[in-house]
Amino acid sequence: MKIVTVSPKFQVVIPKDIRKQSNITSGMKMAVEYKKNQIRFIPLEPLQSMRGILKGIDTTVKREKDRI
C-alpha cells in the first residue's frame, strides 16, 4: 500500500511505480468513483484506441422461428 499526502488544493500525486504499472500519462483523462469509503481513479481510453477491438466477432443471432 502506498501513502500519499493531499495538498491544500486537494491534489495527490500518483506514485511512479503505480503510474508505470497502469500506463498513466500526463494529461490522461480519468473517471473518479466513490464507493464504500474508497476513491477509485479509472483511466479512460480514447475512443479512437478502441477501433477494431471487435474485429472478427460473431454477429449471428439465433432466433426462434416465430421471431424472424
Structural class: alpha+beta
- Based on CA inertia axes, which overall geometry fits? elongated
Largest sheet: 2 strands, antiparallel
Please tally the β strands and state the result.
Answer: 2
Secondary structure tally, helices: 1
Strand order of the largest sheet: 1-2
List the helices and strands in order: HEE
Q: Roughly how much helix do the residues carry, as a percent range?
A: 10-25%
**What is the first-to-last residue Cα distance?**
55 Å
- Radius of gyration computed on alpha carbons: 20 Å
Indicate the low-confidence ranges by residue numbers: none
Q: What proportion of the residues form beta strands (DSSP E)?
A: 15-25%
Question: What's the mean pLDDT score?
Answer: 89
